[in-house]
Amino acid sequence: MIKFEIVKDEFREYPDADIVLPARATAHSAGFDICTPVDIEIWKGQTVKVKTDVKCKMDPNLVMLIFPRSSVGIKHGIMLTNSVGVIDSDFYGNPENDGNITLCLTKFEGAVSNFKSGDKIAQAVFVEYHTDRKKVANERVGGIGSTNVIR
Fold it and tell me: pTM of the entire structure?
């Protein structure tokens, strides 16, 4: 099961934006296109964080991998700052941000790129992974980075 939803009102970064929920462009698209909820301007060397105001409910044996769309990387020289976004199934509804998916974009070539609200900028691909179902002591208690303590 995969279901995209708008995050709860109190966690919306852009409460007045018309949110486009991720969807596949064709019957054979591997990825669900993720749209920007607001206009973005990004210059070479700049990093921009964009909260999508979207969360995803998925089966516990799925992980969502987020990549830039090919056109964003090839035509605009933009990549995700962390290379590939990894969204675990228990990120959904977490108390820190309700699972609001954030994209961190870095422009490494070209002058400036502009995207309008509703433009497709990233894509989510779901992958099933093996789990042995053993009880793990740690439970998610927050948002980004909450499953690891830096030592």
Answer: 0.86
